[in-house]
Amino acid sequence: MHLKMSTDYAVRIIIYLSEKQCRVSSKELSEKLVIPQNYVFKILKILQESNLVNSYSGSDGGFILRKKPKDITMFDIMQATETTTRINRCLENDEYCSRYATTTCKARCFYIKMQMYMDDMLKRMTIQDLLEMK
User: Fold this and answer.
1) What's the number of CA atoms in the CB half-sphere (13 Å) around residue 3?
2) What digits encode the pLDDT tens for the residues 24-48?
3) What distance in Å separates the CA atoms of residue 58 and residue 60, rounded to the nearest whole number?
4) CA distances (Å), 78 to each of 11, 55, 85, in order?
5) Distance CA 11, CA 26 (A)
């Protein structure tokens, strides 16, 4: 799986907002994180729709986390920004698999196990954990 640039930006924005613990303007996010401002708006809209950030208008406007860093997981962010988090096409909802695969496909069994490990790690890794990493 190759994460989209918007996912990287979203993680960086969430971390920055976690560190600041106050309202931050899109301009500040753009300048401090070196992300084009139009992209910052796009990512913030996604994060707002996913209930991860709140938006405030006016002279004191800006963006702030909607949840505490300990309550935001990497899985939450990836669910918001990625089209899919599946590591292989055969794990998608339509269960598409090559014409040689069967229900006992050994490769698919491996992919399922690998997906479970990855999902578990993403669900356990919080923004707070990232803030505490050295």
Assistant:
1) 14
2) 999 999 999 999 999 999 999 999 9
3) 5
4) 9, 20, 7
5) 15
Residue type, 80: A
Structure-token pair, residue 126: 């919080």
Amino acid at 132: E
- CA neighbours closer than 13 Å in the CB half-sphere of residue 111: 17
Q: What pTM was estimated for this model as a whole?
A: 0.84
Q: Do residues 66 and 54 make contact, with C-beta atoms less than 8 angstroms apart?
A: yes
Tokens found for residue 105: 């496909």
Among the residues of 1-134, which ranges form H helices? 5-20, 26-33, 37-49, 74-81, 106-124, 127-132
